[in-house]
């Protein structure tokens, strides 16, 4: 869908005219109406869509190893920094195993030192020395692996962000992949939306995107288009677009529904009228225009096609030409063929 941004309007001359039936005198029933000429204006095109707000980074924090939760370091809704401890799983068994591995490492280290002296004295073969050295390296590797396993039992925040609602409690047994808490960045955020493929020629990186959400109806957020999908979706024939905006006030949250207005750089000349000039019906839209003859000015009904609207004005696609004078108020009391007085009763600027 397209919306138009209205360029500054020039001065509009509005006429209030006296309408009367052709068979009656000027002392008969009077219906005052206002008129305005069809104007040519320069409007910038905007691409209108709806979309969803997504986090720049957002994950469910999970455990990489099975274990029982024995310590929780956070509260639901906390703001955390990268590397902050979130939970710790029970490590008592692993700690005991690590002590055993360290004892083995110490023994292999003593044996290696002994073997090295014997080898230097040429009392043992090179293969015995190599075997002792390999056993020491294996012992060191086992200690390091067990230490890393214990370290993985403490789950930390992988990036700065806002935590969601806690999904676990003390004593919860976690399997690898079980969710602990949602972690999301809230600044910046992305707005993902789609547009029909016919508008792809108007899209480009850097377009200003204005966002509105139901939670803040009077607040307009502004960002920029940062990514355009190179593929058209086969199911909708839409192109996926992503805009990015800073969310310093943290008013926008991932998952919010939003209205998107991507403003293009192109401007077009369009015919416009006040919205009040259009008589909208299910069978078609129409206007009353002034049809001037030698015997006077009559009202003539014309069917029009309308386009986008902004600021109380509407685009006229077909049915009228520039400068044509159209009734803007009171159409429901009029009918085709009524005579119009040429006397100006009111003129405003």
Could you explain how this protein is built, in words?
This protein is an alpha+beta fold and 349 residues long. It folds into four domains: 2-46 and 269-348, conserved putative lor/sdh protein from methanococcus maripaludis s2 fold, CATH 2.40.420.20; 48-57 and 185-264, Elongation Factor Tu (Ef-tu), domain 3 (Beta Barrel); 61-88 and 156-182, OB fold (Dihydrolipoamide Acetyltransferase, E2P) (Beta Barrel), CATH 2.40.50; 91-152, Helix Hairpins (Orthogonal Bundle). It contains two helices and 23 strands. The protein has helices at 92-120, 126-152; strands at residues 2-6, 14-20, 31-37, 39-55, 58-62, 67-72, 79-80, 85-89, 154-156, 161-163, 173-174, 179-184, 189-196, 208-213, 216-232, 238-245, 257-274, 285-293, 296-310, 313-318, 325-329, 339-340, 346-348. It has a six-stranded antiparallel barrel. The chain has a four-stranded antiparallel beta sheet with strand order 5-12-10-7, with no helix packed on it. Strand 15 and strand 16 (238-245) form a beta hairpin. The protein is rod-shaped and about 135 Å long. The two termini are 33 Å apart. Mean pLDDT is 85; it is low at 1-14, 20-30 and 342-349.
């Amino acid at each position: 869908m397209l919306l138009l941004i209205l360029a500054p309007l020039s001065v509009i001359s509005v006429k209030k005219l006296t309408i009367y039936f052709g068979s009656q005198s000027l002392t008969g029933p009077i219906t005052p109406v206002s008129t305005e000429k069809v104007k040519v204006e320069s409007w910038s095109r905007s691409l209108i869509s709806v979309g969803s707000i997504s986090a720049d980074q957002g994950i469910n924090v999970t455990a990489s190893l099975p274990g029982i939760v024995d310590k929780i370091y956070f509260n639901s809704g906390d703001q955390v920094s990268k590397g902050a401890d979130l939970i710790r799983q029970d490590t008592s068994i692993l700690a005991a195993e690590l002590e055993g591995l360290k004892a083995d490492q110490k023994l292999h280290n003593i044996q290696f030192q002994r073997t090295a002296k014997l080898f230097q004295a040429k009392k043992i073969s090179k293969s015995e020395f190599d075997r002792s050295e390999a056993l020491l390296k294996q012992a060191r590797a086992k200690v390091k692996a067990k230490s890393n396993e214990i370290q993985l039992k403490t789950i930390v925040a992988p990036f700065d962000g806002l935590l969601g609602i806690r999904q676990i409690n003390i004593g919860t047994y976690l399997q690898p992949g079980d969710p602990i808490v949602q972690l999301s960045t809230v600044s910046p955020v992305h707005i993902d939306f789609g547009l029909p493929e016919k508008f792809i020629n108007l899209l480009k990186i850097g377009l200003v995107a204005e966002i509105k959400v139901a939670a803040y109806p009077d607040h307009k957020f502004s960002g920029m288009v940062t990514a355009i999908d190179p593929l058209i979706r086969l199911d909708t024939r839409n192109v996926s677009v992503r805009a990015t905006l800073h969310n310093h006030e943290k008013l926008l949250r991932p998952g919010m529904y939003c209205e998107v207005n991507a403003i293009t750089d192109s401007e077009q000349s369009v015919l416009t009228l006040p919205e009040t000039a259009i008589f909208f019906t299910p069978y078609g839209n129409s206007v009353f225009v002034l049809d001037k003859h030698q015997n006077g000015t009559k009202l003539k009904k014309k069917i029009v096609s309308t386009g986008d609207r902004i600021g109380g004005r509407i685009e006229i696609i077909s049915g009228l030409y520039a400068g044509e004078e159209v009734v803007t108020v009171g159409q429901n009391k009029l009918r085709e063929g009524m005579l119009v007085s040429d006397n100006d009763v009111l003129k405003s600027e």
